[in-house]
Amino acid sequence: MKKWTRWQDYVVVAAGAYTALSVLWTSQTGMSTAMMVTLGVLLVISGAINLALPGMPVVEWAQALVAVVLLLAPWLGNYASATGAAWTAWIAGAVALVVTAFAIRPSTEEYRHHHVAAAP
Questions:
Q1: What would the pLDDT profile of 32-81 be if each residue is shown by its tens digit?
Q2: Structural domain tally of the chain?
Q3: Is residue 116 part of a domain?
Q4: Which domain holds residue 53?
Q5: DSSP letters of the chain?
């Protein structure tokens, strides 16, 4: 697996950037601003790590966890009634979760190929 080539990670970075920046044009209530910026930045960071260092399944799983939290964020942060912010979190979280699910298996196989083959 080559660095900087996986489309899934670029999609996650874009979803995270859109989430973090969407607080500029969507109405915010409750904890929406803090949650969306934080979770968006975490998606950008995890996507960038996966792009730079492919074959690290632990980062893929952490990215999936952040995507799930983003999906649940409108209820956790009490902003499900703020439709712009809530729909942004739901859609971006779902997109990030789906593309991360596509990336977990190849990442795990890459990890096993390099680490299991090197074991004595």
A1: 999 999 999 999 999 999 999 887 889 999 999 999 999 999 999 999 99
A2: 1
A3: no
A4: 7-90
A5: --TT--HHHHHHHHHHHHHHHGGGTS---TTHHHHHHHHHHHHHHHHHHHHHS-S-HHHHHHHHHHHHHHHHHHHHTT-TT-HHHHHHHHHHHHHHHHHHHHHHHHHHHHHHHHHTTT--
